[in-house]
Please model this.
Amino acid sequence: MTNLSDTQPTAIRKRSRFGFLIGLAILTAALLFGSLGGYGWGVNDRVSAAQATRSQAFGEQFEMAQQDFAARRLDIARQRLEYVLQHDSGYPGAADLLAQVLVQMAITPSPTMTPSPTITPTPDLREQEAIFAQIKAQMAASDWDGAIATLDALRKKDSTYRTAQLDGMYFMALRNRGAAKILGQGSYASLPNLEGGIYDLTLAERFGPLDGQAAGYRNFARMYIQGASYWELDWLQAVNYFGEVSRFTPNLRDGSNMTATERYRIALLNYGDTLNANERLKDRCPAIDQWNIAAAIVQLDAEYSAKYNQLFVECYPPTATPEPFTPTPEFIPTAETPTLEPTP
Model:
């Protein structure tokens, strides 16, 4: 027979051992999580410190690029700005300053460097120099097609020749040719080319950011094309698009040779017809407003004048004019003079 006093210490010892193991497990887990948390915090601190260091480095490079630009060290300024934009394409002010640098490099002749003595023969660049002079003459004459073709030929012949200056010339030639195509100027006066102008301006962006004016031309050209896509399909959308374009570039036109203002007028007339076709009178009356706007551009013809007058009478019928009121004169009786009879 087992003695009860012998089993009790054994049970107590088992419970104590079990409690010790649980405590040890909890302590180990706490140490493990603490270590992982500390490691994570340490990684975050190192990442933040690295980002701060990079931002400081970009800021220093941008500041030095500004100093180089002011001192006319254009090539060094270009290298610094390209470094900043390569690592942070949205760095404030870097893209605009790079565009200024490229333009200045394109119009500023490269300084003539005194060649150092070398055992290798000096390359003969007379042909490249002659082609480069031809490009400058073409750009001065606003011959953008010729300048771009000559730039292509020079770069194909020698891809290392005056790379920064040629990039700046590409930018100016593509930017100006794109604007001329959109506005119908120069050799494109007889036949504007909105799609070609948009393409040229997009190519120019490869060499530098567009200025606000060129970006505006491209934006309104896209809006014109979008409005034309709704032509005869959705006159309300056509009114919205060409109304906006005609406010800022009223003479913008495409291959149809129709200006934005003319398209706006025609869209207004047709949208008015759409409204006038409604069954309910209250839905038809807004057509008068559309025709009024169109009439402010060009006077309505006989057909639309008749439509306008008929609908105007229906929407704003004349009110009856009351007959003038004439008051009837009031009759005032006259007192008779009493007759005095003689006294007897």
User: Anything to note?
Assistant: Residues 214-316 form a domain with the Serine Threonine Protein Phosphatase 5, Tetratricopeptide repeat fold (CATH 1.25.40). The chain has 13 helices and no strands. Confidence is low (pLDDT under 50) at residues 1-7. Residues 47 and 277 are 67 Å apart (CA to CA).
